[in-house]
Amino acid sequence: MSAASALKEGKSVLIDRCNIDREQRADFLKLGGSGVQKHAVVLDLPAKLCISRSVKRTDHEGNLQGGKAAAVVNRMLQKKEAPKLSEGFSRITFCYIEKDVEAAINMYSALGPGDTLSSGCFGQKNPEAKIQLGIMKFLKKVDPPGKDRLVGSNSQNSPCSKTAEEKDSDLGRLGNHSAPLEHIHQDKKDSANSESATLSGIISVDSVPTLAFPSLSTADFHFNLEKASDIIVEKVGEFVTKLGNARLVLVDLSHGSKILSLVRSKAAQKNIDPNKFFTFVGDITRLYSGGGLCCNVIANASNWRLKPGGGGVNAAIYSAAGPELESATKEIAASLAPGKALIVPLPSTSPLSVKERVTHVIHVLGPNMNPQRPNYLNNDYVKGCKILREAYSSLFESFAAILRTKKSLPQESNEISLGSQNPLGRNCFDSDQKVKREAVDECEMNKKSKSLLKEVRHHVSHTVDQKANFETEKPERLEGILGKTGTYAKHSGDKRDSRDETGSKKVWGSWSQALYQIAMHPEKHSKDVIQILDDIVVLNDLYPKARKHLLVLARVEGLDGLADVCKEHLPLLNKMQEVGLKWVERFLNEDKSLIFRLGYHSVPSMRQLHLHVISQDFDSKHLKNKKHWNSFTTPFFRDSVDVMEEVNKHGKAIIKDDESFHSMELRCHRCRSAHPNIPRLKTHISKCQAPFPNVLVENGRLVFSPDHLNKCVHSS
DNA sequence: GTTCTAGAAC
DNA sequence: GTTCTAGAAC
């Protein structure tokens, strides 16, 4: 049998069958032998859905149709017998709705070669009454009735339990469900650490305080992964021994996450106790419900304003935690400095508390190495590493503080409550008072960050040494600023007026300053910049919209965009074009098939006048939307030659700032055919060889190799 | 049900 | 500028 031989080769095998009763499953379970972990994913979807699917499925061997399908499904559902751990499964996941199925698929597809999942039963609904009554007995008796439906399978009765335990010690106990009985007993002795609860009818025994944290700064803040993984392992190694029985878990959502594998191997090299620290692939906001991993504390990769939104972990946590998190955070602090952490006790009404049993969120801010974001560190990894170390120290210290507050409490009753309505998740560390004090301490530390606000407001060098400036601030002044943080940042902190003498008030978002910084301090951006002259800087567009896409940047203060251009800039415009053409020449030497256009956006998104030098293949994964396309292919794109002519004639460039350009229909820039959406347009332009419209060929708007003239371009 | 876009966040 | 995602469009 192919499944058996694949298993022998050490492969993982997935059997997709309607194994609706125990007997049918037994044969498949035998295939595995004792060295193989056997998992079941039970799709117990609504009958209605099964029926409608059978009807739709025309290639079904049984050719089920209409009423016949309904009859078959009904008969199958009547016979169904849910799998049990005692049959030999080490893990069973129940799916009742599409979402469950999706979560299961995500969970399994995210597994890397070294990953494993905790054993136990997950997501099962309607546990029988005897199970609910039985948990105390379960804890005392080795072999309780109905044990097979309980999580934490009895090792004597599970054929695979040895494998499961071995795996457990490899990776740490991923979920508390997997805790072998002996461990549970041990943990119970330390009653302060023990906690049991029911959730949606699932019975679990959760005893180990756990902090789940994302890798800081490596996503949007572009921190080097090698360096980040060294720091994570270093800091985890430092703290893990100080945390008693508590665990640290590095979480990443993505499939085959590079940072997780780096950290895993480095942690193994350093012999860090895998029971105390391990990595986990999953959604940090659904660790318990989606992955069976109970983490009472989760870390949030925060932004300095402690605001929801943005992307990644921060957005996910705020959205999963509901408005409770935002208001709880707001009560404690208004901003967070890089390297700092802030403990926020999560209100028991927050969905994260109810569903995921999270009691505290620790906001933490790592260093920012992304030039597209404000206040980035300009590739200064000396400072970056220092701040990242500090961030992890702050995070783990905060977690330790939460643990301490828990220990200082009178011990909780050993009585274990049951009932799905009871959000017991909070009981374990419910000592808001002390935590609040801790939080206030953090808040004191955060005063430093208030000077950051001031930085942004009054001065603003994005590469400013924040630390140095913090020390110069006087707290009293800061309080005044802090009080208004919310609106303040909105109106002036986050955005700045350009110095436009004509009185037009173009407001630049904080994200739009990167080019300005590069123009002013190109030497600090050696990674991106490819040519530096007195009055011009050339760089590769960070998100090129074609095979070749350069920006020729003017180094004149106050020259933010085309609107600021006047006659005095004509020599500069001319030089920018010359420099651009030099680069085109180089590119054409490498690839004669390229065709270029040089021009400005009528209304640029990024501050500081820049000339786009862009090849007309538009072959780029970064070209994603209508605005991208239309900003290079409609009159919104102002050819350099035309701009210079207009400035020469009228002293000003003509600006097509009609917003409608961005929502114009998508037309091929060569044959002018219209396309319904970006993917179809991209398919078309990858093939279209029509000559370019005459209007582009005239006056030298297009730049190409002489060899090319007759092939792709009209000869006018 | 999946693909794609638009709008809001930074 | 990008990212994220709800919900429109297919």
TrEMBL record:
Please give the GO cellular component terms listed in this UniProt entry.
nucleus
What protein am I looking at?
OLC1v1033664C3
Q: Which InterPro entries match?
A: Histidine_triad_CS, HIT-like_sf, Macro_dom, Macro_dom-like, P-loop_NTPase, Znf-C2HE
- Could you give a GO molecular-function term held by this entry? DNA 5'-adenosine monophosphate hydrolase activity
Question: Superkingdom of the source?
Answer: Eukaryota
Q: What is the lineage of its organism?
A: Eukaryota, Viridiplantae, Streptophyta, Embryophyta, Tracheophyta
Q: Where is the Macro domain?
A: 264-461
Segments carrying the region annotation (Disordered) are: 146-177
GO BP terms, alphabetized: single strand break repair
Per the record, where are the segments of Polar residues compositional bias? 152-161
